[in-house]
Amino acid sequence: MKMINPMNVIDSSRIQSFHVWLVIWLFLIIMFDGYDVVVYGAIIPSLTAEWGISGLTAGAIGSYTVLGTAVGGFLFGMLADKVGRKKIIVFTVILFSVFSTLSGFATGPIMFTIFRVLAGLGLGGVMPNVIALATEYAPKHIRTTLVSFIFCGYSIGAILASLTSRSLLPEVGWEPVLWLGGIPLLFIPFIIKDIPESVDFLLRKGKDAEARAVLSKIDSTLTGDFKLVTPALKKEGIAIFKLFEDKRAFSTLMFWLSCFSAFVLIYSMNTWLPSLMMEAGYDLSSSLMFTAVMQVGAILGTVIFGPLVDRLGFKKVLVPLFFGGAISLSFIGLTTSMFIAFVLIAIIGAASVGVQNLFNAVVSQYYPAEMRATAIGSTMAVGRIGGIVAPTFIGVLLSMGLQPQFNFTAIASAAVLGAFALLFVQVKHGETKKATEHESSENIA
Predict the structure, then answer these.
(1) Do 347 and 322 contact (CB within 8 A), yes or no?
(2) Quick check: 404 and 279 in contact, CB under 8 A?
(3) In 3-state terms, what secondary structure has residue 282?
(4) For residue 250, what are the CA distances in angstroms to 160, 242, 261, 375, 424?
(5) Quick check: 437 pLDDT over 50?
(6) How much is the pLDDT for 204?
(7) Range ranked top by mean pLDDT from 26-30, 54-58, 330-334
(8) pTM for the whole thing?
(9) Alpha-carbon torsion 270, 274, 275, 279, what sign?
(10) What is the pLDDT of residues 291-309, one digit of tens each?
(11) Could you tell me if 264 and 390 are in contact, meaning their C-beta atoms sit under 8 angstroms apart?
């Protein structure tokens, strides 16, 4: 009987309608993830005015939400490796959609905070599983590009949150802006229908028929009598500890450090960019435009550099991008030209959100399939600590009345740290390198 390795089928496949629908639904999920995260910043003035809370309290609510996403990423990342990616994606989409909507019905800051933290669990939990599933089903030659494109949805969601808030807040208040976060509930029947379970997971659970059905959508020529190669049994033990086995320990720590640095950049700029630009001499209207330009830069950076990562490897692309972001941050406070400032901010967007989009795909390919969601979830959980620390750190710097250039340079140091961390990742111990060496040996044979 003919033996077929399902991973080889996926790796060498062409784009089918199966891939198109998978990308569409995962893109929309991440778009609403981005919408929900960014929309809170837009409604803070309305909440402070209605409930009389201080800026410190509003900031704390934001930090609690980020903490919820960190816990969700870690918890649901590990859980998915045991119960399946699809089940966790469906559950976490329901979780963040329901509690995002309920946040719009909150009658006070305590109830609002509880709902936001619970929504944060879902927001954090859905992301590593989307990455893991997209990585598994993307054809090898465009894997990084496809996964990174899905995460452009985050920036689209952020832009939609800004535009929607500006349109609705003056007319109907902050509540409907949050109610829109419940739209993904309408996607659930389609997600269940069009998003497959991991083939690796199905084979480990002995569900060969289901695995064959999924693979037939990827390659219609798979007919006749054949048997699928079952992945090697996973070693017993705690999932998080496996990230430190097989000479991966140092690289795992470097990935964590690099992700922490990227989130420091992202949350520093998302939270304080308008204020930082006003400190540098720009008016409020111009400063708000920089936020949109940064997201456009993130999208362009993801789309342009994603294919380069597939061709050249992540170090040759992400490390220079990090350094480019550091240089741009160092110069942004020195220019008085609006055009140059926009260009520098776009580069910063590519070097922060854009790098993180590409970084997600890199991490997902470095680890074996059976621990992929755990790897991504734990990496992003550590990264989100940077998201908790960054807003407060920059707030302290601004309160000290320092020169704007010093503030930008302080943020730039995170980009330098992230670049050096990636440089020290040991590619030779990752799954991508092993797969390449295996292919080379097969070609020689």
Answers:
(1) no
(2) yes
(3) coil
(4) 39, 13, 17, 14, 8
(5) no
(6) 80
(7) 26-30
(8) 0.76
(9) positive
(10) 778 888 988 988 888 888 8
(11) yes
